[in-house]
User: Fold ArsR family transcriptional regulator from Shewanella fidelis.
Amino acid sequence: MAGDIRVVSSFINAMNNHKLSKADVLLLNHLMMKYADFEQKKSFVINQSKIADDLSLKQPNVSRSLKKLVASGLLRLEGQNLFSIQI
Assistant:
């Protein structure tokens, strides 16, 4: 249990340190809940247009948030449109 709390704390600190916007956090939460199936480092394919529709965002904003999440280390680009959550 203590290890889980440390992981969550580290994850929250990473989110704060990279000054994620509301759209970034919304996208990250959506990816964790819908695509990653609550599993760390599970790879999943992202359709940016579909996600933009799901979250009522514009596709360029989804693209920008994905780039920011990858740069922050919270999301890992595994291949073309293939990502994983890095907690």
About this structure: Residues 2-17 form the longest helix (16 residues).
